[in-house]
Structure formats: C-alpha cells, structure tokens
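User: quick one
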Amino acid sequence: MPELPEVETVRRHLACALSGRTLERVRVRRNDMLKGGWRCRALEQELTGLRVGEIGRRGKNLIIELSGTAVLLAHLGMTGRLCVADADAPAEEHTHLIADLCDGRRLIFRDPRRFGHLELCADGRVDDSETLRNVGLDAMAGEFTARRLGEMLAGRTAPVKAALLDQRRVAGIGNIYACEAMFRAGIPPEARCGELSDEQLRRLHRAIRRVLSEAIAAEGTTIASYVTGAGVPGGFRERLRVYGREGERCRTRGCAGVIERIVQSNRSTFYCPACQR
DNA sequence: ACAACCTCCTGGGGGC
DNA sequence: TGCCCCCAGGAGGTTG
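Assistant: Done. Structure below.
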C-alpha cells in the first residue's frame, strides 16, 4: 500500500531508470485510469516523443516532468506499480500504460485494483490538476512543523488518526504510518484533534517525521504487493510496532501490553492500550 | 464547515 | 480440493 515512504522509494528508482529517456511509443489501455478528462488515444499522442526530466513527489503522488511544460502525475492507489522493465519481460495482466523508451527498456504502469490513476498536465500547472488540487503540505516538507500540525488540528472533533489520513491537510500518511506515528507519540486512538496538548502535538510531529524517515531508509513497508524499484519487498515491515500485530506482545521494553485492533472511519487501527493513554 | 458513512476494485485467505 | 464470502484501504462523493 504505497504511502509516502513507498512512493519516495519508487521516485528514487525512476529518477535513475527513467530521467533523461525519451518516450518513443506509448500505449494506454483504459480511459477510467485517467484523470483530467484524458482519453487513451489523446494521451498516447501527447506523450509520444517527450523526454523525461526531473521526478518529484507530493504526498503519495509522483510528479514526472517532461519536455516543454508537460508534467505526468501518477497516483499508485493501493496496488499500483510504476517501474522500468526490460522490453522482453512478459506482459502482465492489469497493465494500463506501456511506454517504450529510447534505451530499449519500457516504463510500465500496472494496478490490479485500479484505485490509482494518471493525469497529464500539458501546461505544467500541477496545482490546478485534479490530482493535486486537494493535496496539502507534504509530511516531509520543511514547512510541516509542529505548529502547522497544531493549526491543522485546532478546533476539530474528529479522531486525530482520521485527520492524519486526510490528504488535504498533511499529505503522505496512510493507515500504516498513521497507526505507527500515534503509537510512537503515545496518543490513544480515540483522542480527538482539538484536545491534544502542545506537548502531544510536538510528540506527534516528531513521531510522524521519524517513522517516515526510517521507513524511507528501509525502502518502505511491504504488506501485500508493494515492491521496491529493484523488485524486492520493503524492509520496514519487521520494524512495525503495532500495524498488523493484533494479539501480539507490545515491543516496548518493560511493557506487558498486547496490541489491539479497533475500527475507525472504516479502517483498522492498531494500538497498545498500555503505551497509548 | 465538519464528521460519518458509502463506493469503487481485485487477490488472497479462511471457513465449510 | 474447491468454492464462496469477506477483507484490505485511498480518495471522492453523499448525507446529516
């Protein structure tokens, strides 16, 4: 499930394998994987012949700069994969875009569950795109401070965890890292936004930055399908302290707690009742 | 404005 | 062994 660390891992891989290459032949298979009103044929024509420049990221979105002003935006949803493969690699099901590159390899966008999408901004005004117009401050950006986090949560009654998942405020945190950050900050899952103390806000901000940094260094977390650019599982799974660990012992030294699971906004929340109070 | 649902989709796992 | 049902969740939409 690509959250910020997994998307950052993909970004770094594409920066090596894709930047500087020209898209020589492009095939797009499904209109319903495209945003911004694009259709397959028009997108194929628009992309053909463009050269890939820098590759950026905001939250869980990849920002692929192309020749001229064009920018290709990609969201990987739950099961999306954007990778560069050898041209003779076997074709896989659920492949929605194939772009043959000038170096004989090919860019592939594959997404079995189809929660992801692509969008081309021909004029490069990405802030106006469907993909990014509702995406807030990247969780690893320098401007994301404990003070900003406090402003985002002030006066609201929703559970803190639900607010962390809301990409319009801080972008990049999904269910796994929301659970892990809440655990590290020692904040109980039912805590509401407006009732956090300044000390709790500082702890939560630091926990978010640390868990994301560590996960980026480990090339992300693999639960089901995600693999790094090199095609191997991310290394953070074994370092998860609560996510997916219902019924197991808390890993905090000296803690006798057992990890529990509850459902919040239709999502599983894992937590340690002893550490988070 | 905000919060609490619901919906889309497929692969994998559990139960019978 | 096989089949059916349920579950996972990002994000936009709808309802209250």
